[in-house]
Amino acid sequence: MGFVVRVRVDDIAAAHHLPGYDGPCARPHGHNWSLEAVIAAEDLHEEMVVDFAVIKSVLRAIDHTDLNDDPDLAAGGRRPTAERLAVVLARRVQTRLDAQPNRPRLVELTVRETTRNIVVYTPPGA
At what angle do helices 52-60 and 82-98 cross, to 10 degrees? Predict the structure, then answer.
């Protein structure tokens, strides 16, 4: 791909708990999450790979929420882990990218649950 951008959003406050988990994360608790999307495109649209505000709006949509209330994250007995959050946010970002004329692709999505606990997700086909 010709162009690569990184869009980062820090200090997203969101709560969750992991039902059935044998440990303290089974109890409701919160994190100040940090999220970063890496997006690539061959061509620019209006001199941009993508408007950063579009990506930030997708990532910020979880701010001040309980992730267990999000059906994409917790439906069907799923646990809203950092890994699951990465997959769901990656799908949401790519959906927004698919509407862009220059067809950018999400290459990688990083979820920082804490400064020490980080998930890096590469979507299939990236």
Answer: 140
Q: By the 8 A CB rule, do 93 and 37 touch?
A: yes
Neighbour-count burial for 57-88, b at 16+ CB within 10 Å, e otherwise = ebbeebeeebbbebeebbeeeebbbbebbbbb
Task: Write the pLDDT tens digit of every residue in 47-89.
Answer: 999 999 999 999 999 999 999 999 999 988 899 999 999 999 9
- The pair of three-digit structure tokens given for residue 109, joined into one six-digit string: 């999505």
Place of tokens 């997203």: 12
Nearest to 117 by CA among 77, 82, 71: 82
Positions marked catalytic: 25, 64, 113
| Report field, pTM of the whole predicted structure over 0.85 | yes
Name the amino acid, one letter, at 81: T
Q: What pLDDT is stored for residue 126 in this prediction?
A: 76
**Which of the four CATH numbers 3.40.190.10, 3.40.50.300, 3.30.479.10, 3.40.250.10 does domain 3-121 have?**
3.30.479.10
One-letter amino acid of 116: R
